[in-house]
Amino acid sequence: MKIFSSGFYRMHSGMLIFLFGTILCYCFFINTLGSVPIWAFTVWNLMITLSLVSSPVIMGFFCLAALIYAIKSWQYVITQLSARNNEFLYHSISSFGKWQQFKSWFYVQFNIFLPLIVYALFAGIIGFNFGHYIIPIVILLYLLALIIVSVAIYVRHSNRLIDIDRQILLIRLLRNWNKSFFLLYTLFVFDKLKITYLITKAIAWMLIIGTFAVFSDIKDESAVPNLVVLMIVTAHSLLIYNEFRFNQKYLYFSRNFPYSMSKQFLGSLLNYAILMLPELLWFIGNFGIHSVSLLLQAFSILILFRSLLYWIGLSIKNYLIWIFVLFNLVFLIILYRITWLLPPVFVSTAYFIFQKNYLNKNLID
Description:
Elements: H1 5-11, H2 13-29, H3 41-45, H4 47-54, H5 56-82, H6 88-94, H7 98-112, H8 114-129, H9 134-158, H10 169-174, H11 184-192, H12 194-214, H13 223-235, H14 237-250, H15 261-275, H16 277-287, H17 291-312, H18 316-335, H19 342-357
Helix pairs in contact: 1-7, 4-5, 4-8, 5-9, 7-9, 8-9, 11-12, 12-13, 13-17, 13-18, 14-17, 15-17, 16-17, 17-18, 17-19
């Protein structure tokens, strides 16, 4: 409990306080605009909670958030198990029987999930009072299933011998292949950032479905695909940042390689083409020849996002601010139907920023 549960809360306390504090403040302190009957105040104040227990769509978003929360807990626990100062845990945990291990890990994971469980119980009580019974039960069963899956992962990991020579299947298959220099980040993603990649894909496809559902009544048929392009690129902004950080950390010496400036500038597109292959195939299959212009827009936004990092550096805060600004700018461009400006303007701007800051030696700091 001290190492895993308490440590998890210490590391993620800011996120939890912000998330649940915002929800609780909304439920109990929000005021409505205008005159509302006294009997309706409870319904208005509990609108988010009522939506959770009455709408399958909101329940789906909650389940996705719970899955992401579970994955973060898996990462934290496994990282702590692998820490050198916690190596004694492998001996002490494995000395118990599997059932005792299961109960102990269940207790730990239950405490990690306590904020979600408390809110799910609160939502269930509200739902029962307003006649919603099925979704609250489904949510609680889903959280129980996540806890059991988490416990199974912990038991398996804590009883597994550490093999320092273990390699994933992908590395074994590609070990003897000639690899392009510009594909090293893709291999790094499939080796070390698999969870980040899967979460990014889940968010991207949720945004695709949500955009078509929310903007289905727009008369301009080109607007929705353009919005989908913007959503997908923004969803992959973390992978873009990680690619820049990977190059700065592991491939900083590559600036001495005999690659032209334009090749260095466009080489990263090979990574993005493979990492976004599911979305590329979906665009081609659904939009045909029109997908060419959409893909040009997507890669122009991507390359600008990446080039900004050569100017900003590794400051994730400044990077996210610029992502927010560019997101709103592109959104306005889509509304005014001038998306044909994106490829020439964004690519030329990106190349100018890249050329001016490529040899900036302060970026590594």
